[in-house]
Amino acid sequence: MVRPYAWPVSTMLSEIWRYPVKSMRGHQLTEATVEPWGLAGDRRWMVTDADGSFLTARELPRLLLGVPTPGADNGLRLHADGLGDLVVPAPGADARERTVQIWSSSVRARDAGDDAAAWVAELVGADVRLVWLADPTQRPPNPAFARTDDRVSLADGYPLLVTTEASLEALGGGFSMRRFRPNLVVTGSKAWAEDDWRVVRVGGPGGAVFRAVKGCPRCVMTTRDPDTAEGGREPVTTLARLRRFDGATWFGTNLVPDTPGAVVREGDVVEVLEEVEPGAGPLR
């Protein structure tokens, strides 16, 4: 049963992360605007193969070494050690538009051109293209966990991911939160409390309100060092021991915004407006 909950005011937003290019390195922000499909500028770019199927660091680990910096008018500056920087303007209306596949969704995206494709190809050692999602209203999340008018950009499944410092500490092992690629990191909660959240507000009355719609099953990407892209067995091995449900390992909770246009800021109070009784594990 969902119930309201008076959350301690010491629970705060400690970090905000944005990932301009899917699977490339993220960067930390002090504040961000919330759009219906995620944080402004989050995962609007993506790497695909020549046929338009999405590619991530699961298949191409060296994508993690690409450092995208947002530029003017939705453009990017791409950087990686050993490669020259490349400025990539957001493709205009006259750019080649392609149908691209991300999981079960097909969306129309604009190709960023041959120079951008060549830069990313040199980074990852494969024939790839870089595309930009000009229209982020195309793609609905899984209807089993979302409303018909919800939307998501090029994130795996949902607009935002929240994690908590307490859960990372409970996991042990000294893992970096960067392995889990959250958008929002919360401090001051109990470990695994995010499993039970259903409605969360960041920033007090008038702040950003989110529905917590589904837990996040974790994949091989978390086993890649975010600085070197080298692989291993952790933290999935530890997660499997502590957080294995329905054949998957879980860390973090997916969010859908209900107040687009709101701004979240580092240090904002985080309140859980509705939650369920603890103990059931993540929504799945």
Automatic annotation (TrEMBL):
UniProt xrefs under InterPro entries = MoCF_Sase_C, MOCOS_middle, Pyrv_Knase-like_insert_dom_sf
SUPFAM superfamilies with a match to the protein in the record: MOSC N-terminal domain-like, PK beta-barrel domain-like
The record's listing under PROSITE patterns reads: MOSC
**Pfam families per the record?**
MOSC, MOSC_N
Positions of the MOSC domain: 128-273
Q: What is this protein called?
A: MOSC domain-containing protein
* Native source organism of the sequence: Nocardioides nanhaiensis
